[in-house]
């Protein structure tokens, strides 16, 4: 009998192994600038309060800039190893819990729930997306907002179809995108990450990691939001500069950003 792994199970094995090199691989991302722009977009939609649930928070890059802004943060992730690194950065100031966003517990009532840097693309079907969104909704205050980003098709036709090499602090990371350059909308795409640790003469090759993500076209995201009882307020797009603009242009933008609220009863 074929055993089909959920997106959460794939992500857990990938990130348990990737945790020690994750911050090096993403060192070029300007989170402070990105989050500043996202907060402006949220404030336009009446963001109130300072309670944040960061779903798929990883090593904490997506919530650390919120602490000096006075936010009270709860973070969750499927990978304990990623959370251990988040804890090293945030100490006791942030509540952290292992959780699969497919079975998200109710941590409380939050003014803002977000899932950043394509955490949602690790879900592998429209049903998984809707299930995760329902769990996020259950954590939103009545006036709360939800924000998440997804990788657009261009990201799968370039980054997920190409080789990228990152060298930092004695670590050489080679990302082999395995997607076809003309991959179809809604496809599942894989990449293989090779990690080599270099310390003088000593060279150690770590086991390769597979990243498995699914592209979610806008129509599918909107349908999943509706199915979860959420109303989409805004869709933005941005390229590698990370500056969100409207409208989303799937010919140019590598990411789409969705902002939603609970459907009023
Ligand atoms: C690309 S990282 C982003 C981490 C963090 N949000 C950031 O911006 O640096 C994606 C994160 O999503 C987590 N993740 C993927 N699928 C998940 C799931 N089903 N439930 C919880 N976390 C998940 C991974 O473990 C990983 O830490």
Short description:
By secondary structure, the protein is α/β, with parallel strands linked by helices. The protein has helices at residues 7-25, 31-44, 80-90, 126-138, 153-157, 218-227, and strands spanning 51-55, 72-77, 95-98, 110-115, 140-151, 163-168, 171-177, 188-199, 202-205, 209-214, 230-238, 255-262. S-adenosylmethionine is lined by residues 7-8, 11, 15, 56-58, 61-62, 77-79, 82, 100-102, 116-119, 122.
Question: Could you walk me through the main structural features you see in this protein, from its secondary elements to its overall organization?
Answer:
By secondary structure, this protein is an alpha/beta fold. The mean pLDDT is 95. β6 (163-168) and β7 form a beta hairpin. The chain has six helices and twelve strands. The strands form two sheets. A seven-stranded mixed sheet has the order 3-2-1-4-5-12-11, sandwiched between helices. Strands 6, 7, 8, 9 and 10 form a five-stranded antiparallel sheet that branches. It is globular and about 65 Å long. Helices cover 27% and strands 32% of the residues. The chain has helices at residues 7-25, 31-44, 80-90, 126-138, 153-157, 218-227; strands at 51-55, 72-77, 95-98, 110-115, 140-151, 163-168, 171-177, 188-199, 202-205, 209-214, 230-238, 255-262. α1 (7-25) crosses α3 (80-90) and α4 (126-138) packs across α6. Bound molecules: S-adenosylmethionine (SAM). Residues 7-8, 11, 15, 56-58, 61-62, 77-79, 82, 100-102, 116-119, 122 line the site of S-adenosylmethionine. S-adenosylmethionine binds at residues 7-8, 11, 15, 56-58, 61-62, 77-79, 82, 100-102, 116-119, 122.
